[in-house]
Amino acid sequence: MAQCVSRVQLTVACRRLLDRDIGSKSDPLCVLLQDVGGQRWAELDRTERIKNCQDPEFSKKLLVDYYFEKVQKLKFGVYDIDNKSAELSDDDFLGGMECTLGQIVSSSVFTRPLELKEGKPAGKGTITITAEEIKDTRVVNLEIEARNLDKKDFLGKSDPFLELYKQSDAGMWHLVYRSEVVKNNLSPCWRKFSVPLQTFCGGDLNKPIKVSGSDMDDTAGSDLIERFTNITGKLLEAGDCMVEFECIHPEKKQKKKSYKNSGIISIKSCKIETDYSFLDYVMGGCQINFTVGIDFTGSNGDPNSPDSLHYISPDGINEYLIAIWSVGSVVQDYDTDKLFPAFGFGAQVPPSWQVSHEFALNFNPNNPYCQGIQGIVDAYRQILPQIRLYGPTNFSPIINHVARFAAHSAQQRTASQYFILLIITDGEITDLDQTRQAIVNASKLPMSIIIVGVGEADFKAMEFLDGDNGVLKSLTGEPAARDIVQFVPFRQFRNAPREALSQVVLAEVPKQLVSYYKLQGWPPVRLLDIKKM
């Protein structure tokens, strides 16, 4: 199942609406509907009605769940409401507009003309929609260490770990964080960690926080070493300055009159910071650039044969085209100019008939851009009869090609450009070692790689590159800085709705994008511009 990336609230305003009332102006209301498949629409939300107004600015926000990996088709309808009924069948339709949620969130301001019917403008009326993510972006960043903890193990010291609890309104304690275990150490220093402020204390800085240190015993479970309780605000007073707390074991305190403490917990730093989300970056002006690489090696079979993976069926499709449409239809909403570079690899290309692993589908190396997803599809269909399928299957040239653009963008040190490379292939990779190095290098750049395997080949090498079973490393042992590769075999989606493929392969992209910019410490572009003012 697709995971909701965020909740979004939409603000709607209209200008120059039709006037349907006699003796007064219209009383407009806006309804939001979402495509639920089968040419059916379901109402998600609606604004308030505004009396006697042709230029309404609706105060009620329209709420919708946002998924990056889906094409979410929306329809806005504006009606003149003259009765108290919730039904709209008796109300005058002032105009409507269809779009996708991706188009809205990737635009700072989204304005379109209203239409009475498709292609029929509703006078000069327009609708303007702005989006805002509903979230608390604050996180609590903590660095904690301890010293002189009680010894719990008979033959050694203690194996301490840390737990933080918040108190509910009903007085119950709920675990919000558990640290790693530091082996055989009475003065441990735990790794820095972050907890969303909402999770940490419900956003209330006066909420109590209980900090417990325990010894991990593999056979008997855990044994409390010490604990202390304080309010969130007191912990935050630490900032970048160390604050120390005596930790008390309640049973020891009762039994021993001379008991002082079971150790000292030191809050080295405790700060609230902003944790930017995917939508922060997209709505802040980050453009997502989409590039396609297509496998034209001989193992695909003669494109003129119905057995070939490049054979275009009578209904105009094959697995390559379906993959392009599926992924591209989502990504295109996040690229303003809709110009997408597209390349082939593994074919002999005219006029020299040399094998190339990085040739433009439109045969124009100086301008390999195709106009929209349809432009990629058209270029693919036109090039098939003009090339000779050959081999081998090399990925590294096209990965390095896109990486060069990503590297140039990274030099600007702003979160303005992110790159997605879609590689569609039919078989085993030939330059595995070079590709591993190319991916490790690309993991340091604003870039993600999606690999879709078509046909019935064994794709073990692709699964290895995916890195789901461990961090991908180069031949020299250098680990990838981030997990940037997502591989899926197309055969798993042959009987599924077309949008299922894009939902799976694109689901990781928001996390990959955020992880890169977070690693660099770069805020969204518009926030950076505001700070410079």
Number of helices: 13
Largest sheet entry? 7 strands, mixed
**CATH class category of the largest domain:** Alpha Beta
Structural class per helix/strand content? alpha+beta
Written description of the protein model:
- The strands form six sheets. Strands 17, 18, 21, 22, 24, 25 and 26 form a seven-stranded mixed beta sheet that branches.
- The chain folds into three domains: 129 residues, C2 domain (Immunoglobulin-like, Sandwich); 137 residues, C2 domain (Immunoglobulin-like, Sandwich), CATH 2.60.40; 239 residues, von Willebrand factor, type A domain (Rossmann fold), CATH 3.40.50.410.
- With 533 residues, the chain is of the alpha+beta class.
- The longest helix is centred in the C-terminal third of the chain and has 15 residues.
- Helices cover 21% and strands 35% of the residues.
A few lines on this structure:
By secondary structure, the chain is of the alpha+beta class. It contains 13 helices and 26 strands.
